[in-house]
Write a structure and sequence with these properties.
single chain; alpha+beta; Ribosomal Protein L22, Chain A; three-stranded antiparallel sheet; 5 strands; flat
């Protein structure tokens, strides 16, 4: 059974609160309390207060034990922003955004998660019993030079490999003729 608690309009930036909230996500409640109690972050105190509220909800409303709880989900969303103005140079005004955040926490039971983990382990153990030959496959050997030639369209099956390698030799006379034609000399 899930237990929820919310903290709304916390006058801290959500970006800064998320740093602390992500520390305790997925932890058992006792460990999360300890983590927040010794954290140096300013956002740790309100989150600890919220966590204690969620634990009290679980114990009083749902008759759950504290030892059997963990932080299933904790989210930090942006609340309304207060807009203030500050004087700047040359008669201008710079806006100051005083952000707020909404934090919600969901606690879950550990024992129900333990039974799901056993089921997942048994399914994964069956997959591990398969022979190792199926898992490892060899890649086929590919000759990339042939693929490059086919892509360029230069592969001629009529010519032998020796003829393909030979390039037409350019003599000095041929080069001189090309340049003289371009310059209009001949």
């Amino acid at each position: 059974m899930d237990v929820k608690a919310k903290l709304r309009y916390l006058r801290m930036s959500p970006r800064k609160v998320r740093l602390t909230a992500n520390l305790i996500n997925g932890m058992p409640v006792a460990k999360a309390e300890n983590q927040l109690a010794f954290s140096k972050k300013y956002a740790a105190r309100p989150i600890l207060k919220l966590l204690k509220s969620a634990i009290a909800n679980a114990e009083n409303n749902n008759k759950l034990k504290k030892d059997n709880l963990f932080v299933k989900k904790i989210t930090v969303d942006q609340g309304p922003t207060l807009k203030r103005w500050r004087a700047r140079a040359f008669g201008r005004a710079g806006m100051i955004r005083k952000r707020s955040s909404h934090v919600s926490v969901v606690l879950g039971e550990l024992k129900t998660m333990a039974s799901k983990k056993k089921i997942a382990k048994s399914a994964s153990s069956k997959a591990d019993k398969q022979p190792a030959k199926d898992k490892i496959t060899k890649r086929p050997v590919v000759d990339y030079s042939e693929i490059k030639q086919e892509a360029k369209g230069k592969k001629d099956e009529s010519k032998s490999p020796d003829e393909q390698k030979k390039k037409p030799s350019l003599s000095f006379k041929n080069i001189k003729d090309k340049f003289s034609r371009r310059l209009g000399e001949g």
